[in-house]
Design a protein that fits this description.
By secondary structure, this protein is α+β, with helices and mostly antiparallel strands. The chain has helices spanning about 15-25, 55-65, 80-85; strands at about 1-10, 30-40, 40-50, 70-75. Helix content is about 35%, strand content about 40%. The protein has a four-stranded antiparallel beta sheet with strand order 2-3-1-4.
Length: about 90
Amino acid sequence: MRAVVTVIGKDMVGILAKVSTTCAEANANVIEVTQSVLQDFFAMVMLIDIEKMNKDLTELTKALEENAPGMTIHVMHEDIFNSMHRI
């Protein structure tokens, strides 16, 4: 099972480290990351493996928001993401 994590906000040092550390603490493995900085704004999409995660997605989202204040963070199960983007 996988989930998609999106992170958007004002660019600052350590965003990737904070988000990936929080995922590691929840035993969610980061599979892929794409990130971009557009002037002062940071955008990142991560694909994580949640098969062995020790939190549910709501708890992970809360932990990510606490550890990366000021960022807008969404965590969505892969099945929901795929259903929303199916043509």
